[in-house]
Amino acid sequence: MKDIYDVIILGAGPAGLSAGIYAARAKMKTLIIEKGVPGGLIFTTSEVDNYPGSMENATGPVLSERMKQQAEEFGAEFVTDEIIKMDIIDDIKSVEGSLGQYKSRAIIIATGAVPKTIGCKGEKEHIGQGVSYCATCDGSFYSGLEVFVVGGGDAAVEEAIFLTRFARKVMIVHRRDELRAAKSIQDKAFKNDKIEFRFNSVVEEIRGDGAVESVVFKDTVTGELTEYKANPEDGIVGVFVLIGYTPNTEILKEIIAIDASGYIVTDERMATNVKGVYAAGDIRDKPLRQVVTAVSDGAIAAVEAEKYVDRIK
Ligand code: NAP
């Protein structure tokens, strides 16, 4: 039984690391498995200035490293591996990675979701330098500037309204001539005189040496290309891509309850439909995907996993 962990946590983003801190501090034998670098999405965030208490020197990598160290100091073990298969029904659960096999009594899934990308030329090169996937995180960096919001769903339109607090002008770019967002949200956007709309339009290319200096659009009806250059006094323009998320639930589809959009369904105690299996962070069906909500999920999942393991041990 020596090699059986009390809890295995999949994913070392804020949700997984928070779960690791709580589980290890409660003296659970804890293993955190991460396929890449710890930190999840915040690893690529230059500043996390909306996480309470993290004003100074709070870059994503710094915050993730601190969380990882904290989990390690409480005794959590870390392994770098990519999970390919899971057997989670029995009391002893088995997780198979490409480098090894791991066993535990409880599992916390915190493997997150990735924002969908446009896939156009210049997008990848400008991530964090004008291209953002999170208005809540990066909106304040565009105070007094012009920004584009790509997408026509609830998230895009709500975040466009949010961005008017900072930006001088917000231009919603949507591939059709009608928004997908709820009517009530649309109405607010149509009434906001800082918001303009570019319908039947997709981003073809994002240009700029360092920051984004211009964006090339393609008309989805006529195929015509137009280049929007940043106002010379601004020099730069922001591009917020809000076209949905892809949860990392590919290998879980057959073994756990997942909603129509691919997110894991949990109750408020982070329990899934499988006994002893919890989910935390962006992989859950939830209204706000932020560090602050991810760490909260992680803490709850760990406390619930601890109670479960105590019951079955
Ligand atoms: P969504 O509802 O799936 O909308 C995605 C939007 O992006 C759609 O307008 C879609 O265009 C567009 N899009 C998708 N792929 C694209 C591409 N490759 N290029 C250009 N445009 C593309 O996603 P979401 O807005 O992130 O919302 C996700 C879920 O969260 C929804 O269920 C939503 O209701 C919910 N949500 C709710 C609230 C709220 O209630 N306050 C706030 C945020 C999110 P098409 O319309 O042409 O498909």
User: What's the count of strands?
Assistant: 17
Work out the strand percent: 25-35%
Largest sheet: 7 strands, mixed
The set of bound ligands, ions and cofactors reads: NADP nicotinamide-adenine-dinucleotide phosphate
Rg (CA only):
21 Å
Structural class: alpha/beta
Low-confidence stretches: none
End-to-end C-alpha gap? 11 Å
Instruction: Give the total of domains.
Output: 2
CATH architecture group name of the largest domain = 3-Layer(bba) Sandwich
Order of helices and strands: EHEHEEEEEEHEHEHEEEEEEEH
Morphology: elongated
* Individual helix count: 6
Which homologous superfamily in CATH is the superfamily of the largest domain?
FAD/NAD(P)-binding domain
Give the C-level CATH assignment of the largest domain: Alpha Beta
